[in-house]
Amino acid sequence: MRAGDDLAGLIARALGADPLRDRDVVVVAQKIVSKAEGRVIALSSVEPSARARQMAEEAGRDPRVMELVLRESRSIVRFERGVLIAETHHGFVCANAGVDRSNAGAPDAVVLLPLDPDASAARLRAELGDRSGADVAVVVTDTFGRAWREGHVNVAIGVAGMLALKRYAGQFDPDGYELRVTEIALADEVAAAAELVMGKLDRCPVAVVRGLELPGSDETAQTYVRPKEKDLFR
Amino acid sequence: MRAGDDLAGLIARALGADPLRDRDVVVVAQKIVSKAEGRVIALSSVEPSARARQMAEEAGRDPRVMELVLRESRSIVRFERGVLIAETHHGFVCANAGVDRSNAGAPDAVVLLPLDPDASAARLRAELGDRSGADVAVVVTDTFGRAWREGHVNVAIGVAGMLALKRYAGQFDPDGYELRVTEIALADEVAAAAELVMGKLDRCPVAVVRGLELPGSDETAQTYVRPKEKDLFR
After folding, report:
1. Mind listing the pLDDT tens digit for each residue in A40-98?
2. Cβ distance of B175 and A150 shorter than 8 Å
3. A54 to each of A77, A85, A175, B215, how far by Cα in Å?
4. Which of A47, A153, A230, B217 is most buried, by the most CB atoms less than 10 A from its CB?
5. Please, what CATH class does the domain formed by A1-30+114-226 belong to?
6. CB atoms A151 and B81 under 8 Å
């Protein structure tokens, strides 16, 4: 996958004789979206700032990667014990602001998150719809760590064509108890489900989730961005 | 579902003509496990402590529920703006230490997490294996909020018979770049996937995940408990 490649066309061809259907959710790993959009940087082209050099030394890391992490960050949430948790310009909180050297396509390459993953998802959705005639949803995923809990899971960083949050507030259980706060992060759960068949080293960057019949919506992955003033852990 | 009910028998009967197969993952909502194990408390039986009364007043909540939350907590991680994030005795960090009034079976009832959800999963796995002859895995789920991110997702609080963490450290991508930290929380992703078909008000507390062929393992959900000294967000 290279800058300018036709991702929708590649997906359509890979599906072959089993084309997309209405209400399918096409789950796409961020990395191929970023590559198609040219969000790949050669480390040799990166000139680290003084701050990046200092932080890299502190963390025992490559100063050029640290420079990219700082450029991709709106703020640093934690920087301790070699771990850097940042808020990206999109508002996501994750390790290294999503900057990642794995599966980058070349030993010298680093992949950044898409500039606007919701726009990527919407564009891909439109292109897949044009080709297939099917009304699909698209979820762009990345792999995030969590506070308090070991292990990483896939989450949605771009969403188009499906409800992002299923809100139960104001609904009642069978005993008449009113649910007050539960909101299910549907696209995050779709992303997690898809990871189980995509893996990290299997070169399988796309999965189709079929049969869920999730409600359509104009919501995006920005629905998941918790405003800093509401957040107890920043 | 009531204390002492035969959960494995109910699941087997519900499956009817489509019995369990080797490598199926049976995903069970914590609430029915807790109910079968008698972890339901009538609020009228709870005498709140002075501390529970004070915290309940501060948060505008029921002092008897607050008392149960405190009993179920090993430590309080945050208590702000009416939100209480606690570390349970199992080591999970979640709202209200998992104490929940929804779908409790009676207006006066509150459900607590199982005392040992891994033991619950292991027991259910053995019972389902005895009945079906199939070597299945079992995941007990609850719905947790996240730091930084709006929305709740299902996670695994009990695991038996499957690998909990898929560890990529030391493996290489196609360009020879060595993955260093990625560990995928497989049972959490299975839990999230299952939530999509279980829902909160559909009275569907069990799902079977089939076709994944996840590796077997003795790992439990304790694999996900990040030691406090490793945690940047406590």
Report:
1. 999 999 999 999 999 999 999 999 999 999 999 999 999 998 899 999 999 999 999 99
2. no
3. 17, 17, 59, 42
4. A153
5. alpha beta
6. no
